């Protein structure tokens, strides 16, 4: 088994604590154990509505955020998807192996199509095929993702199996590397995953200053009335407390809840402080990188070279097996 790991992140340009706990925190740990590749998947991001004038900014911001969080270019290859054209190429070959019925089953596609009725583009539909290409190009053994991506990884494995069956053994089955953290939910609509697309009040950004965090958490929905059953909103705050606080704090509020004496305003104030403190270094490093765009560009140029070297090898193998190399 090789030691390679790959993951991808969309360039929203504003990482929130859900992205952090669900993905980036895990990536930072993995880079000490494995040969890690991290792609900023700008091509995927074109399947949602966007303003071209903002795209570049968002991509740069995402790279800066990853670096400021602790993704270390000495340990990891960090690159932009569209700068490695093999992703799009392999996606086409994979598309010819993917039954439409498989794509129609994808829950993320159905969710997004329902949300952007005016823009159900073909890219949104074939999004998981491009994701399969992102992954299999690097032949990783594992892909760190949140549980919402499991279906996409299964599809990548389906495609790998189909490719092998038709053209000979090429791709091994990949393993999802799930983070222990459960999903972080929206502050205002805790039945939904925390997502920038829901609106600013729903998310806590890693870059939010302490006062902003406090204000947002103060508006988070908790329990209505005295229920023994913990509501989704309260559960979400406890999840955050568990991840950003010490076990003593977590246990203190857990017991207060159990006895019916919990003061949500105290829980919220504590939580806001913990989160603001946790990302203090991040905010400082981020400001430094923003002043040094040349440094960021150098890191990306290097990432592109390293990613392309691996991607080109796989693509040549694929084209040869498919009979395209003359
Ligand atoms: N679809 C993933 C998400 O929304 C992003 C992604 C694109 C990805 N390509 C990937 C994740 C490859 C892991 C591996 O989070």
TrEMBL record:
Keywords noted in UniProt: Aminoacyl-tRNA synthetase, ATP-binding, Cytoplasm, Ligase, Nucleotide-binding, Protein biosynthesis
Annotated compartments: Cytoplasm
Domain of life: Bacteria
Motif segment ('HIGH' region): 11-19
Motif 'KMSKS' region positions after renumbering to this chain: 193-197
HAMAP family, A to Z: Trp_tRNA_synth_B
Protein's name in the database: Tryptophan--tRNA ligase
Source organism (scientific name): Candidatus Doudnabacteria bacterium RIFCSPLOWO2_02_FULL_48_13
